[in-house]
Amino acid sequence: MNRESLAAQLETQMADLLKQKLELVLREEIRNFLEVEHPELGDSRNGYYTRGMDTRFGRVEELRVPRDRMGEFQTSVFEPYSRRDAWLEETIIAMYKGGMSTREVGQFVERILGVQYSPTTISNITNVVLQDVDAWRKRPLKRRYSVVYMDGMYVSLKRDTVENESIYVVMGIDENGHREILGYYVGGNESATSCREIFMDLRARGLEEILVGVADGLSGLKDAFLAVYPKADFQRCVVHKLRNTIVKVRAKDKPAILEDLKGVYSSAAYEEALGCFKLFESKWNAKYPREVQSWRDDLTDLLVFYKYPEAIRYAIYTTNAIERTIKEIRKRVKPMNSIANLEAAEKIVYLFAKDYNEKWSKRALRGFAEEGTKVELSKMFTNKYGATVRHESLNDTL
Questions:
Q1: Are residues 232 and 365 in the same domain?
Q2: Of all helices (H) and strands (E), which one includes residue 236?
Q3: 16: containing domain
Q4: Are the C-beta atoms of 165 and 186 separated by less than 8 Å?
Q5: Do 172 and 318 fall within a single domain?
Q6: CA of 127: how far to CAs of 80, 158, 209, 221, in Å?
Q7: Could you tell me the pLDDT band of residue 6, with boundaries at 50, 70 and 90?
């Protein structure tokens, strides 16, 4: 007997053994239901019906499922009308999240179970996630977050045609130093109007007090943020600013300019950083007047992080924390030429956000957990928003 024939025989024997054990469990279930749990019903058995079922050990054909005359019995072996063991849905969702297309997942299922699942069927299975997406996106938020980041990416999204659309992600650090993805917003293009709607959504879900918002230099984003959170500070990402500057200078000058600007964001105090900028300004203004003027115009927003405890400044002067998260999402969608629809995009980002929040909830960020930092941040909240909780309406704020 060759290897293939032996493998086929073993699979058949395994399926037969599994069928026998499942049918034994089903018979014991209905006996217990009729004789032990509900003898008062006067119910009795009413034969069997047969069905197929996909399990982690292979496909079971013509499984004999017992019935009762009153139709009250329901087995716990599988859900009503389910043709799949729960493990299969969980596995399919995990493979989908991991970067496999619906077609690739279908081919994998066919190899392990010997049955064909079309891309549409796989998509329908992953749609169980959509039942949780809406509730997750509308969940109430904590009242206070010390730091809130916003960044985005473009994906090719298929509607009537395939076009680039944005996915905004908002991440916060709460009073205890735990990161959390607060929300994600799929569709449309980057604009100050869409950003303002995002901040209004956060406010409506209970986020009333923010110490500092951190974002890149999207035009109008600062105004949109401060329109909804007028008492918060706004920090423009220093790293984005550096990237935008360095591409505009000659190669031979890049190392020196980077070194001169390093003091602007790595000094021990605001006054020292300001002095470093003055040196940068005097040294390079004649050669790169536009670039120096750009830093001069944005300097106030670039140095906001110096207001905050030194132990957490690393987490405020840049959006790197949220950029790493978005990078992981981008890696998931990169193999796809385009995302099939809005629902598919929602599922992908939700699965990542849910996993990240669960992981981050177990550990506070460096510096934020220090008692001195907590005391300072608490004082800053009190200075900005008062010692008591205020429930002013969004309309009053706007």
A1: yes
A2: strand 233-236
A3: 1-79
A4: yes
A5: yes
A6: 18, 17, 35, 34
A7: low
Report the distance separating Cα 234 and Cα 3, nearest Å: 67
Does residue 55 share a domain with residue 196? Answer: no
Assess contact for 182 and 172: CB atoms under 8 A: yes
Strand 162-174 with 144-158, pairing: antiparallel
Q: What is the pLDDT of residues 313-347, one digit of tens each?
A: 999 999 998 988 888 877 766 655 445 556 667 77
Q: Answer yes or no: are the C-beta atoms of 325 and 171 closer than 8 Å.
A: yes
Q: Which of 46-55, 128-137, 186-195, 380-389 has the highest mean pLDDT?
A: 380-389
Cα separation, 94 vs 352, in Å, equals 11
Give how far the C-alpha of residue 137 lies from the chain's centroid of Cα atoms, to the nearest Å. Answer: 10
253-259 long-range Cβ contacts below 8 angstroms, 24+ apart: 253/284, 253/287, 253/288, 257/284, 257/288
Residues 315 and 348 in one domain: yes
User: Quick one: 107 and 151 in the same domain?
Assistant: no
Q: How far apart are the first and last CA of the chain?
A: 79
200 and 345 share a domain? yes
Q: Residue 187: pLDDT above 60?
A: yes
Number of structural domains (the chain) is 3
Residue 15, C-beta contacts closer than 8 angstroms, at least 6 positions apart: 57, 58, 59, 60, 61
Q: Read off the amino acid at residue 183.
A: G
Asked if residue 388 and residue 350 are part of one domain, the reply reads yes
